[in-house]
Specification:
CATH superfamily: Aldolase class I
Number of domains: 1
Shape: globular
Number of helices: 12
Radius of gyration: 17 Å
Number of strands: 8
Strand content: 5-15%
Structural class: alpha/beta
Low-confidence stretches: none
Largest sheet: 8 strands, parallel
Bound molecules: 3-hydroxy-3-methylglutaryl-coenzyme A, magnesium ion
CATH architecture: Alpha-Beta Barrel
Mean pLDDT: 96
Order of helices and strands: EHHEHEHEHHEHEHEHEHHH
Helix content: 40-55%
C-alpha cells in the first residue's frame, strides 16, 4: 500500500483538549489558541461544543469563542452538537461545520449523552435535516472503537454498524475514536479493514487518544490502510470527561513530525504549532504532552 501524499489534520485541542479541564480558562485564551492554530496552518479546527453546560461546563463559552475568533479563509471551524438544540445554537454562532457523536458501546453512550446508541442515531436525523437545509456539513464520530471504559472489549462489527449508519444518514466523514487509547497497531489496521468494507476509506478518519502511548503507531498502521485524515490535539491536551483516566489525543506536533519524516504534506508549520502549544500550556500551568515540543523547546518540558 502506498502512503498518502497529503494528510489532513483535524485539530481538536480547543474542544477535546480543553473540555476536560477543571480550571477556568478564559475566552481570551481559548480564542488565542484557535487563532494560533489557524496561523500555524491547521485547515480544520474544532473550536468547541454546543452541549449541556451541566454536562461539560468548560464548553459553556463556545458561542463567545466563535464570536471572537478570526476566521481565516479556507479554514473550517467546527463544533460538536449532540442534538437539534445544540445545532441551532451552533447555527446562531455561524458554525460552518458540526459533528454529531455516537458510540460503539451502549454503556459509554449512556454515560456520555444519556441515551442508547439507537436513540442517539435517531436524534441525529433532525440535525442532519437541519444541517442540509442550511448547507452545513456534518462529520460523525464513533467512540470506543477499540475498547470501552465500562465494557472493555468492543466488537468491530458494532463499530462498523454505527459508522455505516452515520455515513448513510449523510455524515461526509466518520471519525473512529479510540477514546481510552488502548488500541494497538494491529487492532487499528483490522478496524479500518473491517469498517472500510461499509464506509469508503477516504471517508474515514482516525481519532487516537494516547493513554497507552500507542497513538503514533496506530496512525502509521492506519496510513498503511489508506487512511489520510487524523484528529489530533496540540500539546496532547485533553481527555473525555466520561472516560476516566483517558489522556489527551495524540499531540498534533508529534503527528506533524511523523508525517514530515514520511514526506507527507500537511501544510502545517511545526515551529508555529509548537509555539501555539507552548502558550496554552503556560496558561494551564503544565508541561506539553508533545514529545517533539519538549525536545525542540526545553520550555515546553517545564
Ligand atoms: P440530557 O440531560 O438527557 O438532556 O442530556 P435533556 O434533553 O433531557 O435536557 C436536559 C437539560 O439540558 C435541559 O435544560 C436542556 O435544555 C439542556 P434544563 O431545562 O434542565 O435547564 N440541553 C442543552 N443545553 C445546551 N446545549 C444542548 C442541550 N441539550 C439539552 N445541546 C445531552 C443529553 C446530550 C444534552 C448531554 O448528555 C450532553 O450535553 N452531553 C455531552 C457530553 C459531551 O460533550 N462529551 C464530550 C464530547 S464526546 C468525546 O469527547 C468523544 C470524542 O472526542 C471521540 C472519542 O474520543 O471517542 C468525540
Ligand atoms: Mg476524543
Amino acid at each position: 500500500m502506498n502512503l498518502p501524499k497529503h494528510v489532513r489534520l483535524v485539530e481538536v485541542g480547543p474542544r477535546d483538549g480543553l473540555q476536560n479541564e477543571k480550571q477556568p480558562i478564559s475566552v481570551d485564551d481559548k480564542v488565542r489558541l484557535v487563532d494560533d492554530l489557524s496561523a500555524a496552518g491547521l485547515g480544520y479546527v474544532e473550536v468547541g461544543s454546543f452541549v449541556s453546560p451541566k454536562w461539560v461546563p468548560q464548553m459553556a463559552g463556545s458561542a463567545e469563542v466563535f464570536a471572537r475568533i478570526q476566521r481565516k479563509p479556507g479554514v473550517t471551524y467546527a463544533a460538536l452538537t449532540p442534538n437539534l438544540k445544540g445545532f441551532e445554537a451552533a447555527l446562531e454562532s455561524r458554525v460552518e461545520e458540526v459533528a454529531v457523536f455516537a458510540a460503539a458501546s451502549e454503556s459509554f453512550s449512556q454515560k456520555n449523552i444519556n441515551c442508547s446508541i439507537a436513540e442517539s442515531l435517531a436524534r441525529f436525523v433532525p440535525v442532519m435535516e437541519a444541517a442540509k437545509a442550511h448547507g452545513v456539513r456534518v462529520r460523525g464520530y464513533v467512540s470506543c472503537v477499540l475498547g470501552c471504559p465500562y465494557e472493555g472489549k468492543v466488537k468491530t462489527e458494532q463499530v462498523a454498524a454505527v459508522a455505516r449508519e452515520l455515513y448513510a444518514m449523510g455524515c461526509y466523514e466518520v471519525s473512529l475514536g479510540d477514546t481510552i487509547g488502548v488500541g494497538t497497531a494491529g487492532a487499528a489496521r483490522r478496524l479500518f479493514e473491517v469498517v472500510g468494507r461499509d464506509v469508503p476509506r477516504e471517508r474515514l478518519a482516525g481519532h487516537f487518544h494516547d493513554t497507552y502511548g500507542q497513538a503514533l503507531a496506530n496512525i502509521y498502521a492506519s496510513l498503511l490502510e489508506g487512511i489520510a485524515v487524523f484528529d489530533s490535539s496540540v500539546a496532547g491536551l485533553g481527555g473525555c470527561p466520561y472516560a476516566k483516566g483517558a489522556t489527551g489525543n495524540v499531540a498534533s506536533e508529534d503527528v506533524v513530525y511523523l508525517l514530515d519524516g514520511l514526506g507527507i504534506d500537511t501544510g502545517i508549520d511545526l515551529d508555529r504549532l509548537i509555539a501555539a502549544g507552548q502558550r496554552i500550556c503556560r496558561v494551564l500551568g503544565r508541561a506539553s504532552g508533545s514529545r517533539v515540543a519538549r525536545a525542540r523547546n526545553p520550555e515546553c518540558a517545564a
